[in-house]
Write a structure and sequence with these properties.
With about 110 residues, the chain is an all-beta fold. The chain is built from no helices and 13 strands. The strands form five sheets. Strands 1-2-3 form a three-stranded antiparallel β-sheet, with no helix packed on it. It has a three-stranded antiparallel β-sheet with strand order 9-6-13, with no helix packed on it. The chain is elongated, with a radius of gyration of 21 Å. The relative contact order is 0.17. InterPro entries: YjdM, YjdM_C, YjdM_N.
Length: about 110
């Protein structure tokens, strides 16, 4: 029995190795053996209550947030859809309806 992983494209167990690449004879997909290992992003972002956040989540603001350089405020309870996680001090990149593109700190949101 082969120790090679199944094809990530079609799931076939008949993959074989050729010149450092893995090849699926059923669908013709070629991939590197390193790609078959589960990818670790290393980016772990948690909300104010410790719940793990992921790209595409919807969150709710838990505190009034003043917008720097503006007289506008993001009010408590504002729902933010389709967030993107980024590295840095402000670890959530999003668009807030009526305000526009913003970066938020995860400590001021909870998962909806």
């Amino acid at each position: 029995m082969s120790d090679l992983p199944p094809c990530p494209n079609c799931g076939s167990a008949f993959a074989y190795e050729d010149r450092g690449l893995l090849i699926c004879p059923e669908c013709g997909h070629e991939w590197s053996p390193d790609e078959s290992l589960p990818a670790e992003t290393g980016l772990v972002v948690k909300d104010a209550h410790g719940t793990l956040l992921q790209d595409g989540d919807t969150v709710t603001v838990i505190k009034d947030l003043k917008i720097k350089g503006s007289s506008s405020v993001v009010k408590v309870g504002t729902r933010v859809r389709n967030i993107r996680l980024v590295e840095g001090d402000h670890d959530i990149d999003c668009k807030i309806e009526g305000i526009g593109a913003m970066k938020l700190k995860s400590e001021f949101v909870k998962k909806a």
